[in-house]
């Protein structure tokens, strides 16, 4: 941005002596050097200045604009500043587009990583949920048998205490948590082998 501003200023205002730090901060030459390339990033061309067609409130008399910094100097016409402006705007738009693409791809990779983790979690819960279920058309007779089995085993101390204890232990929370831990361990080992984590 600073290099483009210096090229613009050197060609639009030739033979211009620049004071390092003039008396008032608003007349520092750095603002006029950075103003045009900064606004060109946002699409403002400033072709009236670059092509030397600006004629409002400026003077070509060198004694006036040298002695009074509030009087602006009229720009001179040259073919080089519009060409430099076209190249500069093309490069800045290209760089900004690349930054946006990089941000989108980083966000996409983050979302894909999280989505695959969520998919694995939900797949695991579905597998655990349907591990002991029977498909839909065949489950009607089995449901009757399962209901009868639970009624027989869970009536309070009625028929079969040993059967109730085995069923509670076989379908307990500890066994389900152990299966989930084992499944998570297998998934983590697969991801380590693939280099995902």
UniProtKB/TrEMBL annotation:
Domain of life per record: Eukaryota
Keywords in alphabetical order: Membrane, Transmembrane, Transmembrane helix
Keyword Transmembrane: yes
InterPro entries for the chain: TRPM (IPR050927)
GO molecular function: monoatomic cation channel activity
Transmembrane segments: 85-110, 140-159
Protein name listed in UniProt: Ion transport domain-containing protein
UniProt organism field: Mytilus galloprovincialis (Mediterranean mussel)
